[in-house]
Design goal:
The longest helix is centred in the last third of the chain and has 24 residues. The protein has two domains: 89 residues, 3-Layer(aba) Sandwich (Rossmann fold), CATH 3.40.50.10860; 119 residues, Rossmann fold (3-Layer(aba) Sandwich), CATH 3.40.50.720. It is built from nine helices and nine strands. The protein has 284 residues and is of the alpha/beta class. It is globular and about 50 Å long. Strand 2, helix 2 and strand 3 form a beta-alpha-beta unit. The N and C termini lie far apart (54 Å).
């Protein structure tokens, strides 16, 4: 039987149509236009491309965007000053600091300086803690997008064994917490895990989020598993080898067109949520 393709691109497009209607409704009710502010430090071409994709997505749904580009020589103090300015700007609904930043910058300090109510990319320590405790918070965008994708395709999570390969603070760790909150049994692995192939073979749901091309081999994966590849590398290669999986696993994400579009969709959806929350607070 052919595997179910978890098409993030088509789902993101349909969700954008709904988001546009919601933005129009919010503004018709007298609210200000939701605005996502993006901070790009340095001249990395891939990061610039990702930021532009987010700006384009905002435009498609009728949101505003403010792109702030800073030189590669920017210091932590200078970046913190920019974030503080955006925190205090009433016109800004959400703040995105594009990862990674140059080595001289304390990225964690800058992430944590983002106001919780504007942390629409889910990168703050406080936001992560609240999400892990199942308290209201904006989830890290890629895991949040993956959860939306799984819900849309009615992938059962409760009681399933989910194996997450990767432990980054904005992908692997929040992914594991979200799956645990959905009542999955979760194993977290990484590039130094012993017997990785054996653990992968136990997965009902496998999430590749390790950032190494095809580290996870197709023959490790059991028949019938749900395969989520959050990696992207030149040539359209993910973290998981796909050859031979198409008719063996129950569902899988394409690369590209699977997780990536849902990451951006989660970001702009949470920016709208922030604008709505501000509107609701104002009307109390």
């Amino acid at each position: 039987m052919p595997s179910l393709i978890l098409d993030g691109k088509s789902l993101a497009q349909s969700r954008e149509a709904m988001l546009k209607k919601s933005v129009d409704k919010l503004m018709a009710a007298g609210a200000c236009q939701p605005v996502l502010a993006t901070l790009l430090v340095g001249d990395d071409p891939s990061s610039a491309t990702y930021v532009q994709m987010k700006v384009n997505a905002c435009a498609r749904v009728g949101m505003g965007s403010r792109k702030i580009e800073l030189p590669a020589s920017t210091t932590t103090e200078e970046l913190l000053a920019q974030i503080d300015q955006l925190n205090r700007d009433p016109d800004v609904s959400g703040i995105l600091l594009q990862h990674p930043v140059p080595a001289q910058i304390d990225e964690r300090a800058c992430f944590d300086a983002i106001a919780l109510e504007k942390d629409v990319d889910g990168v703050t320590t406080e936001g992560f803690g609240r999400m892990a405790m199942a308290e209201p918070a904006y989830g890290s965008a890629t895991p949040a997008g993956i959860m939306t994708l799984l819900r849309h395709y009615d992938i059962e999570l409760e009681g399933k064994h989910a194996v997450v390969i990767g432990r980054s603070p904005i992908l692997g760790k929040p992914m594991a917490a979200m799956l645990l909150n959905a009542n999955a049994t979760v194993t977290i692995c990484h590039s130094r895990t012993r017997n990785l192939s054996e653990l992968v073979g136990q997965a009902d749901i496998l999430v590749g989020a390790v950032g190494q091309p095809e580290l996870i081999r197709a023959d490790w994966i059991r028949d019938g598993a749900v395969v989520i590849d959050a990696g992207y590398h030149p040539g359209g290669i993910g973290d998981i080898e796909k050859t031979g999986l198409e008719n063996r696993v129950s569902a899988l994400t394409p690369v590209p067109g699977g997780v990536g579009p849902m990451t951006i969709n989660a970001l702009i959806s949470q920016t709208l949520d922030s604008a709505r929350a501000k509107r609701a607070a104002k009307n109390r």
